[in-house]
Specification:
Rossmann fold, globular, four-stranded antiparallel β-sheet, alpha/beta, 12 strands, 8 helices, single chain
């Protein structure tokens, strides 16, 4: 069964081009052209592509409302070089972003990367570090018995850190294993996602250490 993709962008011509390409790649794509429609329809899809600049309701506010009720993976389309929208989107729970103008091939690659990492994995037992427990096959994580409400990308990054607990993991490795793409120069995505994970962990955030000039380290206690 084809993966259901919701594409929200007010550029009708670009939407049509992206929709046509993605459908040739085997996706089932529904295109809408404003943020209100995106918020209304998002929970029924497997992944959402959300443009920041849209009428009626912009992509940032649409993302905020989607995240109030849904963990559906979201990729933001942002203006190239617009770091403010990019960082705000990641802080609100976007899984990744693609700078515009983008090629259909680039967007398809990001979709595949995120979807591949959100698929349930064969049961292999939980990962556990101190009071932090993660079940990869169930896409579930807990801190001392409290469920963690993680986005798909946050889950992936935490899984990478837990599998490498006790050693520093470079941002390059985190980007490739957790986001499914090479680390771009001046890209702050990993830092924003890790900041969010720390916040959701509360006191457990102390387990994640920043290793200056390298990346991050999940401490074993």
């Amino acid at each position: 069964m084809a993966t259901q993709v919701l594409l929200a962008d007010d550029d009708v011509e670009l939407s049509g081009m992206l929709k046509e390409y993605l459908e040739r790649e085997g996706y089932a794509v529904t295109a809408v052209h404003d943020g209100e429609a995106a918020v209304r329809l998002a929970p029924g899809f497997q992944i959402v592509v959300l443009d920041v600049m849209m009428p009626r309701l912009d992509g940032i506010e649409a993302l905020r409302r989607i995240r109030a009720t849904s963990r559906v993976p979201v990729i933001m389309l942002t203006a190239r070089g617009d770091d403010v929208d990019r960082i705000v989107g990641l802080e609100l729970g976007a899984d990744d972003y693609v700078p515009k103008p983008c090629t259909p091939r680039e967007l398809a690659a990001r979709l595949r990367a995120i979807l591949r990492r959100t698929q349930p994995q064969p049961a292999a037992g939980p990962l556990a570090v101190d009071g932090l427990v993660l079940w990869p096959e169930k896409r579930r994580a807990e801190w001392r018995g409290r469920a963690l409400d993680l986005t798909s990308t946050e889950f992936n990054l935490l899984e990478v850190l837990m599998k490498n607990a006790g050693r520093a993991v470079s941002k390059k490795e985190l980007s490739e294993a957790g986001l499914g793409r090479p680390l771009a120069r001046f890209d702050r995505s990993i830092d924003v996602h890790l900041s969010s994970i720390r916040h959701k962990l509360g006191e457990g955030g102390r387990l994640i250490h920043t290793v200056r000039g390298v990346g991050y380290h999940l401490a074993k206690e």
